[in-house]
Design goal:
Chain lengths: ~375, ~375
């Protein structure tokens, strides 16, 4: 069956479609858009031979001219250099692209962030379709319209644009070629959604952990639809992150700092960093008397069962704090964190002290 | 006296203020914005010692922390390399910038295009104030929210964003340090506004040509306010250039091609290229029977009186056509041009032939 979640954003509303084999329907979907005659398919060097060519085949079968633009895979390449190279390739297409040209992103979050920012910037804004191929991209990058790249020294996602796609098509079967560790990164975000909005989702993951890890098509499609609905509700509520959208940063403040310290995914993958960030944030919430120790333990236990990191030694607490202050969500050097007030509910806290962060980060080293 | 033109764009509405000495009021204006504590002033290496330091002084006098970020002047530097360097500087400011940081552009169109795109992209969007210091920037770049950079091989303004400023402050006295040839480039846009919307503006320029060229404060402020009002009306009418905003491209289709052929302003300045483009477009309009030869002659005569180029030999008509097809306003390789249907009124034409363009470009070589 196909799940469809409508993302309601006024005239920029769009559908997230979720089903097995959906990549075959890309051509028909693109051809149904207004004035589409030319598409550029952006994907990384791993995805290009697997799904990039399949996307191009589907587009050409629907009589839409398609050009495949690959880039070297990896978070380390989500930078201005790759952005410039993609722009070079896009602007070299013959016949030349115009404002009706559509960009299609096929791949994980790195690809949708890069391709979405290319689409936002080329000719000051082209339409784009997002075809995520990892669970993390399915439940996170595919909703919200955030696109962008990292800055080599200052940090992650510091350069970019809010640019909503015209549609998202999630082919659940692509998860089968996704490495286990990448799958786990997506599950970290699923747990996050449960903690911030819906304990029922935590129940669902606890009940189906093995089936999910085995990539069962129906169960993962259900999981993805549940998560997209939660993220969509948060985003529709507050598109520009002025308020409640910040709830999605739960686990990401300390998580990003851990990731940055490790040099963007070289040693700590995003999902593991977020898992550590959630454990630390839950620890802080317990210390402040916001939640019971049992609730924190449940989150930690689920993350561990999914194979995610819940402990890490040797973190420099001073550096963690320094990076948190540099985070673009910090305000005037003041650190903001999202902490649970009960499972399924979080709040924004602006009174975070270096000591509380240091204590929580140190606790990550404990058994 | 101070002129204020309100640019009506819903919640992104803002004022364009026009007066002599207005740069001194920048600090007070920034301090009056919500949550402003930190400003980055972007200007080129020529403007930095003249008006960049004055802007910083005004900001600091109003208790707003200000950092001057200069870049090497010139259209040739309006590219991804300078964008990256500005981003590096912006993200290196201590304490780190956050979403309340405001970017101020002080300079000509190159500066507002670059600084506006930096503001659009840093942390996925910072507010910005625009302080134009050339007539061209006053009447063109300051209204419309277009920001962006050139691509080294594919063409001008192909990478960028629509990002409205929070305010525009035009200090008319800065025109006094502007070279004559830069002043003339602005006058080409003023003539354009007259041709596309209001013959009264053509009368005003004809009546005040010498006073304007002498930078009389009151007359130039009046001229700028008239032009900002015309551009604002067109932009408010059609913010995303889907329709009537395209009228502003009058003179720019062939003009851009001439500029591109010459290598971005090395030998043909933007205003001279636009003047040539307007002469060519008027020629085409006469040939199609849209306007009388007298009307075309009036436009050509006024441009010539203002010291703008109205003839050019040796243009490769084939290359001009090729570049026009690459223009981002072209659709599926089809060239679109704006032609006058009478003075003060233009229309969009999608049936432009290479032969008609070649004939008009060849006519530019005639005495």
């Amino acid at each position: 069956m196909e799940w469809i979640v409508r993302i309601k954003l006024g005239y920029r509303s769009y559908d997230v479609r979720i089903a097995g084999g959906l990549l075959e329907a890309l051509g028909a979907a693109a051809a149904a858009m207004e004035n589409v005659h030319q598409v550029a398919v952006i994907c990384d060097s791993n995805v290009a031979p697997l799904y990039g060519t399949r996307a191009v085949g589907s587009l050409e079968a629907a009589d839409v001219s398609a050009t495949l633009i690959p880039f070297d895979s990896g978070e380390a390449n989500k930078n201005l250099k790759t952005f410039a190279a993609l722009m070079d390739s896009l602007l070299a297409i013959e016949p030349a692209i115009d404002r009706n040209t559509v960009v299609v992103a096929v791949g994980g979050g790195v690809t949708s962030d890069l391709a979405g920012y290319v689409a936002a910037s080329a000719l000051r804004g082209l339409r784009w379709l997002c075809c995520p191929t990892t669970l993390l991209a399915d439940v996170d990058a595919s909703v919200g319209g955030k696109t962008g790249i990292n800055h080599n020294t200052a940090g992650k996602n510091l350069i970019g644009a809010f640019h909503q796609p015209s549609g998202v098509m999630i082919d659940v079967e692509t998860l089968r070629t996704q490495p286990d560790d990448v799958m786990k990164c997506g599950l970290a975000e699923c747990v996050k959604h449960g903690v911030i909005r819906e304990t029922g989702l935590l129940d669902f993951i606890e009940d189906n952990a093995e089936t999910i890890l085995a990539r069962d098509t129906e169960v993962t499609a259900d999981l993805i639809a549940r998560n997209v609905e939660i993220k969509a509700a948060v985003v529709a509520d507050d598109e520009r992150e002025a308020g409640r959208r910040a709830h999605l940063n739960f686990g990401h403040t300390i998580g990003h700092a851990i990731e940055t310290l490790a040099g963007y995914g070289k040693t700590v993958r995003h999902g593991h960093a977020v898992a550590l960030g959630m454990v630390a944030a839950c620890h802080m919430a317990v210390k402040r008397g916001l939640i019971e120790a049992d609730a924190a333990a449940r989150v930690r236990r689920l993350l561990e069962r999914l194979g995610l990191s819940v402990r890490r030694k040797g973190l420099d607490t001073g550096k963690v704090w320094q990076i948190m202050q540099h985070d673009k969500k910090a305000r005037g050097g003041r650190v903001r964190m999202i902490l649970p007030t009960m499972l399924g509910q979080v709040d924004i806290f602006d009174d975070i002290t270096p000591a509380a962060v240091a204590e929580a980060v140190e606790a990550l080293a404990a058994k």
